[in-house]
Structure to design on (887 residues):
């Protein structure tokens, strides 16, 4: 069942929140209307919020009015009069001291008198009454003024001055008020001595002391002067009537006594001032209600409850049922006759808060609210036409929520709103407390929304206002973008059975307002605007080769070869202008077929020759060639070491090593041609790539080794040895990067190898280093004394190895290899790594050669690990050998 709209706000009882009171000890108390009357002070009761289940009928305004109870929201009662002291400043400096005084003001020591003379003498002087009560007058002397009022003092001053001055008149006024010290004692907030103005009354002293305590009396304030009771003050005269009466002024040394609280009565409910009142002569219920400001018009006099305490016995409840309100004299007599006792709690209940002769209308109407009910009333008396409704009400459904006596349970009766408005005689009858609900059309169906996507400025979902055409929907989305295709757009429409239908429209005609294409949009329609095909897959051409910015460029309708070259930034200096290659592909059905390849005279095309500056087609590739031997321009090699003229020399195409050595002056007398090193950039890049792959393989094997089992001591020792050997080899690899050495075999006699295979062709960037003669052979690895052994001609590697003490127990004798000074390597024939064959131990060594004895690999990790370790040791040793020769 749909629920109504525009409902009134619910009270706390209806919206799911209620207020519970908790005492000082944490005990939950009853509701505010029923908690004990003795616990009404703020310090005794603390409100706590709690949540309970909401009333299911909170949206029915007639039930809402029934549920609302005025007394439920009444604040806790407090002692009457205490708020007046909380809202008053107790700072004596804030009390004004320049108050006007009357002629009856009694002068005393400390008062300041301003005396004005005119007539025979014009003079003004100020005198302060001294402690003896005198003022000093000119030509007269002291005059006693203390204890006399201001009018008498003025007459006395004038009389004594006329004895000295003729025709003199005098005016006496107070220039400063004296202060008096009084004592405020009893049940006051701050008892003590106070210095206050001489014009102060007992109420001023009470305010200065902060007011009475919750247990102090406001009805019997006692003003003492010594042992004499000057007067008894009732503060209710000021608090209730705003009259201070004829209270006596305080004198120096006076005492104000606030006695304990007397009899009191609590009045709450439907009175003007619910509070706790102190009794002082009031004895009847009429007197108490007068203190509370009287009964409100919304109070019921048929039900007045009084809770009474029977002294030292029990609590009891008394009910006072007054006669109808029209008999005022009888009601007054009954109120006067009902006597009030100390501690009574009077509660005045309200009349029913709802109107029984009311009708309610809510929802989709112009003027929702409460209306008066008339006998025989029907719906047409509330809603006469569609002018009383908001636009687009639900056409066939409205409802009446009816409260059925005697328990007022709600029931719902629906009716056809359209039929009721068309035929008022058939409109449903109404009863008191009925609620008529009118719904909006969109309470029962979704709001008209359309979705526009694709090439519009702001794609998304939009809510239309009434019937919107396709052009209006496009404008809601900000219009089409510049890249939109206006030839066709697709409209997806959801059918009543849930299926979807697609419609193609001419968007250009729709935007022009053609009714055939500018169709009416329906709710949930989805319009898709496509992008222009020329933007989705634009025709392009390519230019490669010797231009500033080679790449892919969009093809325009009038683009030629010259235009494409200029778009690409123009020709480089290295461009070959005699000819250029234009590759062109032809479309053959649905496939691209190879087409013509045109050779163009680029220089003529750049000069605008129409024969060579041909128009371009989609997919053309123009290649600008490079000048022959352009890459060789500026080529040079660097010669270092033992040559007569080391330096950098330019080279020509095909120039060889012998030519460069000849240009540098040839080998010097200390040159060691056998150990010459030729370094090349291309070789270094290849070696560096292989070096990084080898490092990665070693790291992978290291991880594999760590994962091997080590259940017994032998396995554990072998594993630790292999891991240590791997870490050492990895550190050597990472510390020695390849330099790009090219192995060559040259001798000091240049003619013997000139123009042979040993005379290698040099390239741009090559570096040739010719070391000095090496008089030693390096022995490295697992030997007892790794060192450099002095070169002895004709001796073998085995002899040099013996000079280093021989191999250790960790040495792999079968894997010993020799690195020649010229870069070549000699390894054992049975070496599993497959290096260069030969017997390294029997080979005759020359100066600069190096013998490397690798460490024996533990039998763990498989054959792959051993091969990788041998390769890594060889690579690191070759780099070390070059470092010895070319530091």
């Amino acid at each position: 069942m749909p629920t109504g709209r525009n409902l009134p706000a619910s009270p706390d009882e209806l919206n799911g929140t209620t207020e519970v009171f908790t005492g000082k000890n944490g005990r939950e108390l009853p509701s505010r209307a029923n908690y004990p009357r003795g616990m009404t002070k703020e310090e005794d009761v603390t409100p706590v919020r709690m949540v309970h289940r909401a009333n299911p009928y909170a949206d029915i305004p007639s039930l809402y009015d029934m549920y609302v109870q005025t007394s439920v929201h009444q604040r806790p009662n407090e002692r009457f009069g205490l708020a007046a002291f909380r809202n008053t400043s107790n700072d004596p400096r804030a009390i004004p001291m320049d108050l006007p005084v009357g002629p009856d003001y009694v002068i005393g020591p400390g008062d300041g008198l301003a005396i004005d003379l005119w007539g025979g003498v014009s003079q003004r002087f100020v005198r302060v009454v001294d402690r003896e009560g005198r003022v000093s007058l000119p030509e007269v002397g002291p005059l006693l003024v203390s204890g006399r009022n201001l009018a008498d003092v003025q007459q006395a001053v004038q009389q004594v001055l006329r004895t000295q001055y003729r025709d003199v008149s005098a005016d006496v006024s107070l220039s400063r008020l004296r202060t008096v010290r009084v004592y405020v004692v009893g049940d006051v907030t701050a008892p003590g001595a106070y210095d206050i103005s001489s014009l102060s009354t007992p109420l001023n002293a009470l305010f200065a002391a902060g007011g009475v305590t919750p247990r102090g009396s406001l009805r019997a304030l006692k003003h003492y002067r010594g042992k004499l009771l000057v007067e008894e003050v009732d503060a209710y005269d000021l608090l209730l009537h705003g009259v201070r009466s004829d209270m006596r002024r305080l004198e120096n040394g006076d005492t104000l006594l606030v006695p304990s609280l007397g009899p009191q009565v609590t009045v709450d409910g439907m009175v003007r001032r619910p509070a706790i009142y102190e009794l002082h002569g009031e004895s009847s219920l009429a007197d108490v209600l007068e203190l509370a400001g009287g009964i409100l018009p919304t109070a019921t006099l048929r039900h007045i409850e009084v809770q009474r305490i029977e002294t030292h016995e029990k609590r009891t409840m008394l009910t006072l049922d007054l006669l109808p309100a029209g008999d005022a004299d009888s009601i007054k007599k009954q109120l006067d006759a009902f006597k009030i006792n100390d501690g009574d709690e009077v509660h005045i209940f309200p009349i029913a808060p709802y109107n029984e002769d009311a009708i309610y209308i809510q929802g989709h109407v112009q003027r929702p609210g409460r209306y008066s009910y008339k006998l025989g009333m029907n719906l047409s008396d509330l809603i006469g036409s569609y002018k009383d409704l908001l636009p687009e009400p639900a056409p066939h459904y409205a409802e009446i929520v009816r409260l059925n006596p005697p328990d007022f349970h709600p029931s719902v009766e629906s009716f056809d709103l359209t039929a009721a408005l068309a035929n008022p005689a058939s409109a449903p009858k109404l009863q008191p407390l009925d609620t008529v609900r009118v719904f909006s059309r969109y309470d029962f169906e979704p709001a008209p929304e359309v979705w526009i996507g694709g090439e519009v400025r702001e794609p998304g979902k939009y809510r239309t206002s009434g019937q919107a055409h396709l052009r209006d929907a496009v404008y809601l989305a900000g219009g089409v973008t510049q890249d939109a295709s206006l030839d066709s757009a697709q409209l997806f429409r959801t059918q009543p059975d849930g299926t979807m239908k697609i419609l193609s429209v001419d968007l250009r005609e729709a935007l022009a307002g053609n009714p055939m294409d500018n169709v009416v949009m329906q709710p949930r329609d989805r319009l898709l605007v496509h992008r222009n095909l020329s933007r989705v897959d634009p025709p392009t051409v390519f230019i490669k080769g010797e231009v500033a910015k080679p790449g892919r460029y969009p093809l325009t309708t009038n683009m030629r070869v010259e235009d494409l070259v200029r778009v690409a930034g123009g020709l480089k200096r290295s461009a070959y202008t005699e000819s250029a290659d234009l590759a062109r592909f032809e479309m053959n059905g649905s496939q691209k077929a190879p087409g013509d390849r045109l050779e163009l005279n680029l220089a003529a095309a750049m000069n605008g020759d129409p024969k060579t500056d041909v128009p371009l087609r989609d997919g053309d590739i123009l290649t600008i060639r490079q000048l022959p031997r352009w890459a060789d321009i500026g080529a040079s090699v660097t010669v270092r070491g033992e040559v007569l003229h080391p330096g950098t020399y330019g080279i020509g195409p095909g120039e060889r090593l012998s030519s460069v050595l000849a240009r540098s002056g040839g080998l010097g007398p200390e040159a060691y041609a056998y150990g010459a090193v030729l370094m090349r950039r291309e070789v270094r890049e290849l070696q560096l790539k292989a070096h990084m792959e080898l490092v990665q393989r070693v790291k992978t094997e290291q991880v594999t080794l760590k994962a091997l089992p080590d259940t017994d001591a032998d396995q554990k020792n072998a594993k630790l040895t292999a891991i240590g050997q791997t870490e050492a080899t990895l550190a050597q690899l990472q510390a020695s990067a390849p330099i790009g050495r090219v192995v060559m075999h040259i001798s000091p006699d240049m003619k013997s190898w000139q123009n042979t295979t040993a005379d290698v062709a040099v390239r741009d960037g090559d570096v040739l280093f010719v070391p000095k003669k090496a008089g030693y052979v390096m022995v490295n690895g697992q030997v007892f004394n790794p060192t450099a052994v002095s070169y002895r001609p004709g001796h073998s590697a085995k002899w040099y190895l013996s000079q280093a003490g021989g191999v250790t127990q960790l040495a792999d004798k079968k894997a010993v290899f020799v690195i020649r000074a010229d870069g070549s390597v000699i390894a054992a024939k049975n070496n599993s790594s497959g290096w260069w064959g030969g017997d390294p131990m029997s080979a005759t060594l020359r100066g600069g050669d190096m013998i490397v004895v690798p460490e024996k690999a533990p039998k763990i990790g498989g054959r792959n690990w051993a091969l990788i370790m041998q390769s890594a040791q060889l690579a690191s040793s070759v780099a070390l050998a070059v470092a010895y020769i070319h530091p």
About this structure: Residues 681-706 form the longest helix (26 residues). The CA atoms of residues 155 and 170 lie 8 Å apart. The chain is about 20% helix and 30% strand.
